[in-house]
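Thread: adenosine-5'-triphosphate complex, take 2
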Amino acid sequence: MTAKEIRESFKKFFESKEHLIVPSAPMVVKDDPTLMFTNAGMNQFKDIILGNATPKCRRQADTQKCLRVSGKHNDLEEVGHDTYHHTMFEMLGNWSFGDYFKKEAISWAWEYIVDVLKIDPKDLYATVFEGSPEEGLQRDDEAAAIWEQFLPKDHIINGNKHDNFWEMGDTGPCGPCSEIHIDSRSEEEKAKTPGRELVNKDHPQVIEIWNLVFMQYNRKADGSLEGLPAKVIDTGMGFERLVRTLQGKTSNYDTDVFQPLIKAMAGMAGCQYGDDEKKDIALRVIVDHVRAIAFAIADGQLPSNAKAGYVIRRILRRAVRYGYTFLDQKEAFIYKLVPVLVEEMGDAFPELPAQQKLIMKVIQEEESSFLRTLENGIRLLQGVIDDTKAAGKSEIAGKEAFTLFDTFGFPLDLTELICREQGMTVDEKGFDVCMQEQKNRARNAAEVKLGDWVNVKDAESEFVGYDYTEYPCHIVKYREVKQKKGTAYEMILDQTPFYGEMGGEVGDSGVLVSENEEIQVIDTKKENGVAIHIVNKIPAQPEAEFMACVDVERRRAIESNHTCTHLLDQALREVLGEHVEQKGSLVTAEYLRFDFSHFEKVTPEQLREVEHIVNARIRENLPLEEFRDTPIEEAKQLGAIALFGEKYGDKVRVVKFGSSVEFCGGCHAKATGQIGMVRITSESSVAAGVRRIEAVTGAAVEKLMDMAQDLQTDLRALFNNAPNLVETITRAISENKELQAQLDEFKAQKAAMFKEELVKAARKINGVKVVAGVLPIEPQNAKDMAFQLRTQFPENLLVAIGCAVGGKPTLTVALSDDLVKDGKNAGQIVREAGKLIQGGGGGQPHFATAGGKNADGLKAAVDKVIELAQL
Ligand code: ATP
Ligand code: MG
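Output below.
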């Protein structure tokens, strides 16, 4: 069976068991603060499992794009070195939300892999939870008994809490799990060592393929467990591992999922997969990582310097580094694999072909810039190595290695590799200490302590904020949030007009008012489908009825900016072309930011045109047309624009202003007239192929225009209210230039005059001509004068000129060369004489200057020069 057929057979099987087949959620997570990327199939059902949402069907199944490179699941270091852990992989899963439980979950898993896929049962092992006395938990005999119907007892293995008890997080749903492992060693090896001894022992041929989780408890903040009202089945099977088993391979990379990519990469590097273990690892790393990066970009996560973007950047850099070090790739190469990936996976994941150009461009740019970093890093490292060697040591300090890593993104293993080539080592312990210190600093700053939810009222939370900004409500539950900067509280309401931050739109703020209390709502966030109000205190009477009041002025400004974002999106497409696609947005009360795909700078003319189009639509006062709970197919027929990487349900909300039609859950103006006006304030680049514009609307434009007008008025006043300011200023500038030229000429003439007078007044001391005096000229003129005099009187000459410009005195001293030869030194003289003007200076033996602070001392300083010259 091909990979494609295997994927389909899984869906078909669970469809036959009355499961609803749902699409994969995006890999990039947007509304869960505990998670950056989807790392398991259950993530997209978290709101259902937590009881925040009702499932549309109690049995569901899918294949989910997962990424395990951060947080609880981080397989990054394994990837490439083993043959069955990936960064990005597909997880096949089936779910029961309060419907079937262990019996069906186990029997169907068995039926699928043994009856449908014909995997030999003698190669299969199942693990069950052995129990935990300190938690008061028994062995999962229930699961074991079900397995005994299919497997002999010696194929059922007890597992500990670490492997066989699943938890969502520190708190929340949890329960025992049962994993299916497969032994794909040769018959010979199986005879030598029974498979049961190798289960969960990291043997590359005895691996876990499917995990069945039985959620039946809820873990509270104090660590205790309570029963979960609606039990949940959550299963996850690694698709690539299943494909490998069915295709009779011993490595995931030998399947048709990875072979085309490996062939392409090996071709580029001029090597053969399987010839050299080091190169093979590099090939595996690269073909694994290109999938993760391409899918992340397709889901809207560009590489960047922070959070999820930084994780993607690190994955990409890891791939570049392996290519650079082991496959001799010195120029961007990973992006060239994208067409192969699109060819292989584009059918199942249409977001890939749709954005191929952008994906390639972003990857290529990232690669090139990291390769430059690598080169700089290598140069810096060479400096460190040389210094270390010169100091007679053979070990690079951990701190140096850490600086290279932290500041220049230069990885430790590469540092070690380069050092090893030159007979050096790296103090790894020192490196770890630095790393740990940095982690501790970050952790201390970010630490939060969450209390248990305190239930007040049994109700679901409903958002009423599209229609109301004030609404009566009751508190459903609340909890304490302790952070370094202080304690706040999170609160969920049964009905709320407060919009929780989502889709780039910031959350509402405002107040909750009861008969005798008022509570500040500082912010509102959307987490796992529920609006969480961040408040400053818990009311004395939590059961009371409250009036929830949104800060209306702020909300209106947010609405205007959000609606304007839609109009801009549309106008950009009209002006720049249909390739323009939203790549991110931020909508606040103060301004809006909009990122979109476009491959060059937007010209000022184009920006103007966009502004004009949007402002015209604002003046048209197009009314908001809203379609709530619209079936997704109908929405698409309306021509609504969906975003890649966004998770949509079956029913969506469509927001329409004239011909702008978008899928959108945000808050909008009732008609475009509310926006007042838009002004684009900046256009810049965010990443290769992605531009960013920022704009303001309404009162903010007014403020901007006030500022511009005030500036103009002030300027005009400065120029006697000239009617044509630009012409007047241009003229003033050129006049000024002319005057400056004249002035320079006059100054030179004046200096020449002074020089003549000075020469006339020169004294002779012991045969030396002493040209000295204090003059009202510039230091530059004094310098010119000194050199002219040196040419005019090549022998027996001493020049000492004091001058002051704007109160700043300068002393200039020059000697003819014969006097210098006699041992006199202008530099020394000026340093000493300069003290009289409270200054210092120096120069050469024949010419030197000193600047000072005390202009009154100039005359004395000039006299001192003559004295010091000892003529
Ligand atoms: P392992 O011990 O092999 O790392 P796990 O216990 O982390 O697996 P689960 O969290 O139970 O795995 O995930 C469910 C299934 O997803 C696993 O049985 C496995 O088939 C697959 N899987 C897990 N991690 C990866 C990965 N990094 N790459 C590919 N498949 C994976
Ligand atoms: Mg794992």
